Automatic annotation (TrEMBL):
PANTHER family assigned to the protein according to its UniProt record, in alphabetical order: 3'(2'),5'-BISPHOSPHATE NUCLEOTIDASE 1
Descriptive protein name: 3'(2'),5'-bisphosphate nucleotidase CysQ
Residues engaged in binding Mg(2+): 65, 83, 86, 196
Cofactor(s) the record lists: Mg(2+)
Record key words, sorted: Magnesium, Metal-binding
Amino acid sequence: MSIPTMTDAALAAHLAKVAGRILIEVRNSEMFEGEALGKAGDATANEFLCNAIRAQRPDDGLLSEEEKDNSDRLNAERVWIVDPVDGTREYGEQRSDWAVHVGLSIAGIATIGAVALPGLDGGVVVRTDQLCDLPAPAKAPRFLVSRSRPAKEAVAVSEAMGGELVGMGSAGAKAMAVVRGEAEIYLHSGGQYEWDSCAPVAVAAAHGLHCSRIDGSPIRYNRADPYLPDLLICRSEYAEQVLALVAGLESEA
């Protein structure tokens, strides 16, 4: 299928949505379960996304969690960074808190993207070119953390701010919960890769949220080593306080 007239944002949203549908079909086939379901979903969605991006944007670079890295991308200004299933464990467990990430980095900045949340009722795609209204924040800030391994910085900062910890699965699901007004702060440390955050950061930034490393420095993409250990996505009114508290933790260490 040729989609030559689509903008980059529309293409990202279309691909994320279709990949999400494919993943639901794989899950509903009942041919796989648990870890095998996660592997089957990853492989199927990755094949679709990578083939589609190469067909629609042949001059752009590509980085996928499920694809062997090609260093040629380092010479490209425009690089698509995708995670076919963000939250493979949650997908394999047939939970709803997993996502599909399709992001476009331009000159190292997460600029355009879409995050599909296929496990939610009806499926949801949050994108850089169609903005959600942000509701009023909760009185006590809600911090999104891993269900099993909450980041120590998030725990400490939440305690200092009188916040509430909310366990959730994938990075994309957490970031989109902030975009959708279901939480206020996503403070992560302890290890991620560029595909975990490129599309979520693009979407969050388009919605006016603060996005940075936890030391306040900018998040850069399309680097030789895609390891990206930490990030902060939050409502702008909390950014200064969160960063100051994180810096205080570092000075005490």
